[in-house]
Design a protein that fits this description.
31% helix, alpha/beta, two-stranded antiparallel sheet, Rossmann fold
């Protein structure tokens, strides 16, 4: 299942538009905050898919019966670009555990690359809901590599992929290599990809825009 936020008019589109804009991008703090805000909106929507149970709360004047989340997810992100989204998700799932994976492209030529994973910190994810965030889903290779790496910590029962912008080929690649119950949430789907596998119009390098250019 794919949820594309761009097909529905909402304040989400304002935040994503600012993230794309070359003038607004000069303000890295605003870029990080917008990453956080779109992730908060996505987290709210993901929460509707989780399991709830009845809870009785004693107030100063009586008792209230309401529904609360019992299916606390594990929130994973791909360093470093995903940190902004990760913080936004945790703002809503404040009781969730976290996982961090350092994955990056290692180019063998101008066009060809492989995904290297050098660091991982993860709790037990067996039979839990796993949320993986990464701002750009360009080829899907990083996402699939990270998911397969996380499997050494258990097999999740549910998987949600959150990205600001995705390419159709990447979505298809993820669907082919992750379990069929995987749900993909994207801010927008851009249909062009450069020879170097960067999304067009996209927004540029989210990690650099949020945290500064890397050498």
């Amino acid at each position: 299942m794919i949820h594309n936020f761009s097909i529905t008019n909402s304040i989400f589109n304002n935040f994503l538009t600012e993230m794309r804009d070359i003038h607004t991008q000069k303000d890295s703090m605003r870029f990080r905050r917008n990453l956080e805000r779109i992730a908060e909106i996505m987290a709210y929507e993901v929460s509707k898919k989780l399991e709830f149970e009845s809870c009785t709360t004693t107030t100063p004047l009586g008792e209230d019966v309401s529904q609360i989340i019992v299916d606390q997810p594990v929130v994973a992100t791909i360093l470093r670009a995903g940190l902004g989204m990760h913080n936004g998700i945790l703002n809503y799932f404040d009781k969730a555990e976290s996982a961090f994976v350092s994955a990056y492209r290692k180019h063998s030529s101008h066009k060809d690359f492989q995904i290297n994973v050098e660091y991982i910190a993860c709790p037990n994810i067996a039979n839990k809901t796993l949320i993986i965030s990464d701002p750009m889903l360009a080829t899907g290779n990083s996402m699939v590599t990270v998911y397969k790496t996380l499997l050494q910590y258990g097999k999740p029962s549910k998987i949600h992929i959150l990205s600001a912008i995705a390419h159709p080929d990447a979505i298809e690649f993820v669907q082919q290599h992750l379990p069929p119950h995987t749900v993909i949430w994207v801010g927008a789907i851009d249909k062009e990809l450069t020879a170097q596998s960067y999304i067009v119009p996209g927004m540029g390098d989210a990690g650099d825009l949020a945290y500064g250019n890397k050498i």
